[in-house]
Amino acid sequence: MQIDRRRFVAGAAALGATAALPARALATTGAPGDAAAMALLDKHAEALLVSYPENAMTLGIDTGKRAALKSALGDHSAGAEAKRRAEAAQRLTELRAIDTKTLSPAVTVHVETATVAHEIALDGWRRMPVGDMAFLSANGYRSTPYVVSQGNGAFVDVPDLLENKHQVADTADAEAYLARMRAYAQELRDETERVKADAAKGVYLPAFLNEITARQLRDGAARPADWAIVTSFGSKTQAAGIAGDWARRAAAIAEQEIAPALAAQADAFVALRPKAPDVAGMWQVPDAADIYGWLVEAGTTTKRTPEDIHAAGLEQCKALAAEMDPLLRAQGLTQGTAGERLAVLGKRPDLLFANTDVGRAELLAYLNQVVAKIRPLMPKAFGKLVRGNLNIKRVPPAIQDGAPNGYAGPGSIDGKIPGTYYINLRDTGIWPRYSLPTLTFHEGIPGHVWQGEYTFDLPLIRTLLSFNAYSEGWGLYAEQIADEVGFYADDPLGRIGYLQSMNFRAARLVADTGLHHKRWTMDQAMQWFMATTGFTASQARSELNRYCTWPGQALGYKTGHNEINRLRDVAKAKLGARFDVRGFNDAVVQTGGVPLGVLAKVVDRWAASA
Fold it and tell me: Which three-class secondary structure state does DSSP give residue 265?
């Protein structure tokens, strides 16, 4: 998944006869209303960058006219959130005033996408007045009723951004880095106040997650002079030849401002622990049904109900178990459910990497081998290729206990910062060798990192808006592409891993709705999830903790994947022998982040012009 900050934009290649033209060219040479609409969208994009400056850092565009953003991080105070809501309402009014009849197809997609994004966001601020309504932010997939948890909050996001995204070439860049360190401390203080305010409204992070979060915060506050954001900053300034003891200055901010703010946030969670509920699902939150209903809509960009999604997930798990059965039998696994047999397979010693630093290094080397093998197969799936600028890293040990098992996002537009695919290696026992290729395809190539690079020459507003069902649906479809181009032709175990991955995402439909809608206990969810997926207890617990933290987000994967395949089937039926899967893939990947309803219009237009 998107920590990615899943940022995906519209591609003109999916939009009919004008497909070969860049989107901005379409904006200025197309229909009568294009230029004015694009000017408004560009203005809205700049406003979003001011609201969420992390986007500018991640994309490497906090330079030139946007240089002031290089010193900034997002304001996490309640007052700033109210201001963002008011500004979004004004932008929506402006978007709705556009006469779409005067627009070209490309610009219509841009306007429709921005409009729906703002509609969903404003509905979220109304229906979820607590927690973090993140739909318009760098982490748009990560809305949650909990401002801070083991998986979200400044302490999770900012260190990675500073260490890996903030570039230092001169004194101004270095001073901006220190300013961002101070802003980090302020973010922590503001979040702590919002956590307390939400608790006064009856919203508490579940007790078992409270304990994990408090521990991570407490551990994070220790030894600030040794933090990577301090030591790496010293290395950056030295490499740039900037005179001065920058590491000392950074250490002073870390010790005097950030560490106390981390400790205070930990103290706040410890103080709230006695009132924290022992239930896992968010059904104990005030107005839970309405909030979860919005989170489901935000996660899927559909109006499907939790009950419908739960039933669909059960049916898909049943179908995938039947598909895995002959492959598992071929491995001598004939007894038990598919999940039980997968659990046995996952413990085979010859398929595991040692749970040591040496074993972790070998695992990372294997992932890079997988990437090297899939790259030359991409021309079979796409007419237009991108670079696939990718770096594979271990999730930092400081946050690995609360972090997802894997996540990724594309790099900077100028290519100076590669996309990063993080894999959680706290326990290598959750990663049997056959499970790793499909994860790599999802996160790296042709998944999130690959898809994100198609977007960089397109309108900035589309880069800044992300849609969970599209991005995660694409991630699963990327796994399918790897199967279709023949990666598993001589690897039956790898294909088991691929089907297990699909089954796992179908299981998410059941587990997420089970926890939050059907009020499953954590034990109930653990037993069902492990029996269905074959995951270890450690792996299942990590997954379920994530669903508790980000209700509804896990529903986007299979929902988006199913819709992409439905649209593919419709286009294939319409075009018959003229259907070209590379053309279809190009259309979907270059369309970028859109609500699923908008994607259906784009694919229909592509099929009509193919």
Answer: helix
Instruction: Supply the mean pLDDT for the chain.
Output: 93
pLDDT band at 1, cuts 50/70/90? low
Q: Indicate the burial class of 99 (C-beta count within 10 angstroms; 0-12, 13-18, 19 or more).
A: exposed
> Tell me: the pLDDT tens digits for 539-588?
899 999 999 999 999 999 999 999 999 999 999 999 999 999 999 999 99
Cα distance between residue 34 and residue 54, in whole Å: 29
Nearest 5°: the CA angle 355, 360, 366 is: 125
Pairing of strands 390-394, 419-423: parallel
pLDDT digits (tens, 9 = 90+) for 261-316: 999 999 999 999 999 999 999 999 999 999 999 999 999 999 999 999 999 999 99
Residue 192, H or E segment: helix 171-200
Residue 187 has pLDDT above 50, yes or no: yes
For 47, counting Cβ atoms within 10 Å of its Cβ (0-12 exposed, 13-18 middle, 19+ buried), the class is: middle
CA distance 577 to 594: 28
Contact 107, 121 (CB under 8 A): no
Enter the tokens of residue 451: 């898809």
Q: Nearest to residue 40, comparing CAs of 89, 95, 105, 108?
A: 95
Please choose, from the candidates 456, 462, 481, the residue with its C-alpha nearest in 3D space to the C-alpha of residue 594. 462
User: Does the predicted model carry a pTM greater than 0.85?
Assistant: yes
* DSSP reduced 3-state for 167: coil
Q: What pLDDT shows up at residue 417?
A: 87
CB contact at 8 A, 258 and 224: yes
Residue 596 CA, chain-centre distance (Å), reads 17
CA distance 518 to 206: 17
**DSSP for 125-159, written as a single string:** HHH--SSB--TTSTTTT--BS-SS-SS-SHHHHHH
Say which residue the tokens 């972090």 belong to. 403
Is a pLDDT exceeding 90 seen at residue 458?
no
CB atoms within 10 A of CB 559: 29
d(CA 104, CA 83) in angstroms, rounded, equals 33
| Alpha helices (H) in 301-418, listed in sequence order | 306-330, 338-345, 357-374
Residues whose CB falls within 8 Å of the CB of residue 521, separated by 6 or more in sequence, listed in order: 279, 280
Q: Using alpha carbons only, give the angle 285, 407, 388 rounded to the nearest 5 degrees.
A: 145
pLDDT of residue 414: 85
Q: What is the DSSP string of 51-94?
A: H-THHHHHHT--SGGGGGGGG-----SHHHHHHHHHHHHHHHHH
Which residue reads 């979003």 in tokens? 48
